[in-house]
Amino acid sequence: MTATVRVVLVDDQALLRAGIATILSAHPGIDVVGEAGTGAQALDVVRATRPDVVCMDVQMPDMDGLEATRRIVADPGLHAAVVVLTTFNREDYLVEALHAGAVGYLLKTSRPEQLTEAVLSAAAGEGLLSPEVTRAVIARAVAERRPARPAPQPVVPLTEREQDVLALVARGLNNDEIAAELVVSRATVKTHVSNLLAKLGLRDRVQAVVYAHEHGLTG
User: Fold this and answer.
1) Collapsing DSSP states into helix, strand and coil, what is residue 55?
2) Which of 27, 87, 137, 187 has the most beta carbons within 10 angstroms of its beta carbon?
3) How far is CA 24 from CA 4, 5, 75, 93, 95, in A?
4) What domain range is 207 assigned to?
5) Which residue range or ranges hold the Response regulatory domain (predicted)?
6) 52 and 100 belong to one structural domain
7) Which residue has the higher pLDDT, 21 or 218?
8) Domain boundary among 109, 139, 169
9) Are 207 and 163 found together in one domain?
């Protein structure tokens, strides 16, 4: 039997937290175990409840979500994956969230099923980027790297299927969407993603997106 994913919601708007809780609690595999209205409160709630996933707002009083994310990810006693939710499609927030260690990046305008998928993906050790966020991350991350890297490093050989998967990852598709596109199983896609990350020496899907765009491997 699959374990229930335990989630903590962090947002300074109580009404919005209630709406997110309703969306997530409708999924039988998700249990909202705590809420917080500031980053500082989030640290206490996360330490008390030990969730699998934290849905983190960015702009909050007391301590913002980016600093809270850094502290949660850096704490060796915590093992929560952080999914950042933001109203603003601002590249600086998104890139800083990446650096802080968040694994999911969604706008609050995302569809309810995208939020649910982001939480489940984060709990499974997979990142999820909404298409809007993917474009912003690519634009900022590639622009930041270019001055320090005049020319891309040689491309590591990938199999044809791994190249297909990388191109779809670069478009912001999740594993289920990639599986449907390639007519293979989700497990097969997960294996391909793990293999290409290992081959390329990349930490996560976000780095894979940037790599694909830097090296012209977007299909």
Assistant:
1) strand
2) 137
3) 12, 10, 26, 24, 26
4) 152-214
5) 6-123
6) yes
7) 21
8) 139
9) yes
Whether 183 and 206 share a structural domain: yes
105 in helix, strand or coil?
Answer: strand
Give the pLDDT confidence of 70-100 residue by residue, as tens digits: 999 999 999 999 999 888 667 677 778 878 8
- Banded pLDDT at 151 (limits 50, 70, 90): very low
Interior CA angle at 188 toward 170 and 209, to 5°? 15
3-state secondary structure of 83: strand
> Is 128 part of any domain?
yes
- C-alpha triplet 141, 143, 149: angle, nearest 5°: 95
For the whole model, what pTM was predicted?
0.74
List the structure tokens of 88: 């603003």
Cα four-point dihedral sign 147, 84, 103, 66: positive
Query: What is the DSSP code (8-state) at residue 62?
Result: S
Closest among 193, 210, 23, 38 to 120, alpha carbons compared = 23
Q: Do 29 and 143 meet the contact criterion of CB atoms below 8 Å apart?
A: no
Last residue of a domain, one of 117, 139, 161: 139
Is 122 found in the same domain as 18?
A: yes
